[in-house]
Structure formats: structure tokens, C-alpha cells
């Protein structure tokens, strides 16, 4: 019996339960927070100025990384080009 493409794809990615957030690299975290909260209706979840803040609307979360944040550090040339932020439940 041939499995449908959709169910095969779902099985392959069954370990991904939820995306924690999308990280944006910004020059000014405080200004970015003001934009997302005042103009777009996001809620401020957490901030550690001037390096980092997290804003959300519904289930969507945006992680704002400023120049001083660990997510803004240059990556080694031999490392992966992608970074992921996740929550590990034990």
C-alpha cells in the first residue's frame, strides 16, 4: 500500500511539536519593541535591554536580538549557518 505524501511528511516531522519563535537581528531592541507593541499590537513578554526582547501576538513569538545578544555573535566558518531556539521539556 502506498502512503500519501502528506501523511509521510507528517510522520517524518512528528518530533517537531511547536516553534518557539522567530529571531530577528535588530539594531535597536527598545525601538523595535515600541514598534511591535504600539503599532502592531504585540505584547512584551520579556526584555533584557539593550540586548534582547521577546514579543508575541497569539501563538506567534518574535525574539529580537540586538548587537550585544548572543544570537548576534558572528558564527565560525565551519559551523552551521542556521540557529534554532527551542524549549526542552524534561
Give the key terms.
4 strands, 90 residues, alpha+beta, 2,3-Dihydroxybiphenyl 1,2-Dioxygenase, domain 1, single chain
Short characterization:
This protein has about 90 residues and is α+β, with helices and mostly antiparallel strands.
List the helices and strands and how they pair.
Layout: H1 5-12, E1 22-25, H2 29-39, E2 43-48, E3 52-57, E4 60-65
Parallel strand pairs: 1-4
Antiparallel strand pairs: 2-3, 3-4
Please give a structural write-up.
With about 90 residues, this protein is of the alpha+beta class. Helices cover about 20% and strands about 25% of the residues. A hairpin with a 2-residue loop joins strand 3 (about 50-55) and strand 4 (about 60-65). The longest helix has 11 residues, at about 30-40.
What's the CATH class of one domain, please?
Answer: Alpha Beta
Radius of gyration: 17 Å
Number of helices: 2
Overall shape? flat
Structural class per helix/strand content?
A: alpha+beta
Percentage of residues assigned to helices: 10-25%
Strand order in space, largest sheet: 1-4-3-2
* Mean pLDDT across every amino acid position: 78
Number of strands: 4
Cα separation of the termini: 37 Å
Beta content: 15-25%
Give the name of the CATH superfamily of one domain. 2,3-Dihydroxybiphenyl 1,2-Dioxygenase, domain 1
Q: In the CATH scheme, what's the topology name of one domain?
A: 2,3-Dihydroxybiphenyl 1,2-Dioxygenase, domain 1
Query: What is the level-2 CATH architecture name of one domain?
Result: Roll
The biggest beta sheet, please?
4 strands, mixed
Low-confidence blocks of residues: none
